[in-house]
Specification:
By secondary structure, this protein is α/β, with parallel strands linked by helices. The chain is built from ten helices and eight strands.
Length: 258
């Protein structure tokens, strides 16, 4: 099977490189189309319409604003037998199906696929066959944990998975930076090291030791202690911050939907 990638930008390039590294597809059967030069050895580089004509599985990894132009360019090459997978969160599967004759799906990757980990979100159009689903899930299982969701859950799920690494990185960074601001004798390098190692070990407790968040909190936060006080402060602010994050991103998503 020939696999094509249209748009080798930040996410498209990451997805292509990750799948190639996993050996789920071979360079000899991989095709790519991009406006700027592509530096990936062994793959075939060609125009979008030519790529679509010779590929069975096509990943459309361009920005949402570029989708109409790309679909117009490849329309004559799309047939009912092909599978088109978009990485755009804003175009609905129904609207995509209205514009193309082939089967369609939506894939939301995460930067964590750079290390062959994390979650990829999958949403399926009405024409998808059981074979299509198996193909995509087995392919993405080589670089991630694929999770199939309805489009109605796209925005909160994207916040937890694709956007999650940035949100988590920000929280860890801000924790270390504030500790340094409050204690100038503490070096930024040491503060970051402490936070990163502690975060890594905490995840291992959650995933390997099967401790729940509540169990960790109970075992660490002694009543009346400093950690308990810190948790009281966070409880006054963090839930409200997350509520605002999910509410405002949902509102913006509604305005952006094509």
């Amino acid at each position: 099977m020939n696999t094509g990638f249209i748009g080798i930008g930040s996410m498209g390039g990451m997805l292509l490189r990750s799948i190639l590294r996993s050996c789920a597809i071979a360079p000899a059967t991989t095709y790519a189309a991009n406006r700027s030069p592509i530096q990936i050895p062994g793959i075939h580089v060609m125009a979008s319409a030519e790529l679509t004509a010779c590929c069975d599985l096509i990943f459309l990894c361009v920005h949402a604003t570029e989708i109409p132009a790309v679909l117009s360019d490849i329309a004559s090459s799309l047939t009912a037998e092909k599978l088109l997978v978009t990485t755009s969160a804003t175009i609905s599967l129904q609207k995509l199906e209205d514009q193309v004759p082939c089967r369609v799906a939506k894939l939301i990757p995460s930067i964590t696929q750079e290390i062959g980990a994390g979650i990829t979100l999958l949403m399926y159009g009405s024409r998808m066959t059981p074979g299509d689903r198996t193909l995509l899930e087995e392919l993405l299982n080589r670089i991630s944990q694929p999770i199939v969701i309805p489009e109605s859950l796209a925005r909160p799920s994207i916040g937890l998975t694709s956007g999650g690494p940035a949100l988590i990185a920000y929280l860890l960074q801000s924790m270390a930076e504030e500790a340094v601001r409050s204690n100038p004798e503490l070096s930024p390098e040491l503060a970051r090291h402490m936070v990163y190692e502690t975060a890594t070990a905490t995840l291992r407790l959650l995933l390997e030791a099967n401790l729940s968040p509540e169990e960790i909190i109970h075992r660490v936060a002694v009543p009346g202690g400093m950690t308990a006080l810190s948790l009281e402060v966070l409880a006054r602010h963090v839930p409200q911050a997350w509520q605002t994050v999910f509410r405002e991103t949902a509102q913006r998503q509604a305005k952006m939907d094509l």
